Amino acid sequence: MAPMLPQPDDLATLLRALLHPSALTECAVLAACLLAAWALVRLIRGPEPRPGSIWFGERIVDGVLFPVLALAAAWGARQALLLMGLPLAVFKLALPILVSLLVIRFGVRVLRVAFPGSRAVRVLERTLSWLVWAWLVLWLTGLLPAVMGELEDITWKVGTTKVSLRSVIEGTVSAGLVLVVVLWISAAIEARLLKGAGAANLSLCKIAANAVRALLLFIGLLLALEAAGIDLTALGVLGGAVGVGLGFGLQKLASNYVSGFVILAERSLRIGDMVKVDGFEGRITDIATRYTVVRALNGREAIVPNELLITQRVENLSLADPRVSASTVVQVAYGTDLETLIPRLEAVVKGVPRVIADPAPAVQLTEFAPDGLELTVNFWIDDPHNGAGGARAAVNLELWRTLQQLGVEIPFPQRVVHLPAGVPAGTPPAA
């Protein structure tokens, strides 16, 4: 089987081959390969984009699957053209370009999935792209062996070991490749664990995903150091000394990590719970290994260290039961037939969409107010993360409509004014 990446010819010979009429045939075949790869990815992906997918990406061509299929189709077409006896020029450029595109797409997609929203990822993406394209240019022009030879000549001693710049670069590339593969595997495992997780076992799946990622990153770091040519046995004594220093300096960080696993294991706080901690109330949207994200109903988000959730009092509004109680107050005029009105109001409140039937709404006479009879309407909702204001407004609107239909008076505030003795009742206030 011929190698996928043929050795480059002289640059002038390659340029003359690109001007040969057979190059047009190669371009047509290559365009057909790219179009077939695009259509196949479109068919597999479906009409909807998949922003968090490594294989498909946000668009069809920015995932890993497109360069994989395009490379496979181009290699097959190249083999067919060789059997036909046609001279190749375009495919000598196309195959290494597709390999470079595959490396860039793979690294970029894995980094974006593993570290979403990170600014450092964009810097790494640009660095990876420039390095891969620079390697491609050097390879196509035949300058790569000369550059690698010059890098081999740049050496220095680290203790008794002689290290060259080429070995450092190759070790760094190998370590980066190992870490990217490890991140890919951990992201795939995390997505698979969280995909089938329901509301009840979401926390357990989250702790399992965090534990798997930490373990794989540790193993990947060891493999990366080994690939870079670093003797791991020499790090034993240094690691012990550094570990003692880091143990004292990173106590808070370690405490937050341990607290995160404790929270996920005990399930005292779960994703989706409504909590109030340190004066901030909201819904838990994510429990990471170091912090917990609490989103308030107004859209603000609080990053709460996990240690704070362990050492301080936390009010969980939905730990054992997601149902919460809400109430509203309305006044009716004295003389209203409450025995007929109260059951009617309870039935109306029960029909409001977000009000649940168990526990049933209740209307109570709570106070003989100066202006009328005060009725307190108590009801329950089971979606406190949507806020109680909307449900209360809907209940108030239905109460007002019902009182209007029944002709029940909502009294206005009334005051009794006492005039001094000898002042006629119709005297203006200024007099």
Describe the SSE topology.
Layout: H1 11-18, H2 22-45, H3 65-84, H4 90-114, H5 119-141, H6 144-153, E1 155-158, E2 161-164, H7 165-195, H8 202-227, H9 235-249, H10 251-266, E3 274-277, E4 280-287, E5 291-295, E6 301-305, H11 306-311, E7 315-316, E8 324-332, H12 338-350, E9 362-368, E10 373-381, H13 389-406
Antiparallel strand pairs: 1-2, 3-4, 3-7, 4-5, 5-6, 8-10, 9-10
Helix pairs in contact: 2-3, 3-4, 4-5, 4-7, 7-8, 12-13
Concise overview:
The protein has 431 residues and is an alpha+beta fold.
According to DSSP, the number of beta strands is 10
Main structural class: alpha+beta
Low-confidence stretches: 1-9
Helix count equals 13
H-E order: HHHHHHEEHHHHEEEEHEEHEEH
The fraction of residues in strands falls at 5-15%
- CA-CA gap between termini: 115 Å
- Oligomeric category: single chain
Radius of gyration: 36 Å
Overall form: elongated
What value does the average pLDDT take? 76
State the strand order across the main sheet: 6-5-4-3-7
Largest sheet: 5 strands, antiparallel
How helix-rich are the residues, as a percent range? 40-55%
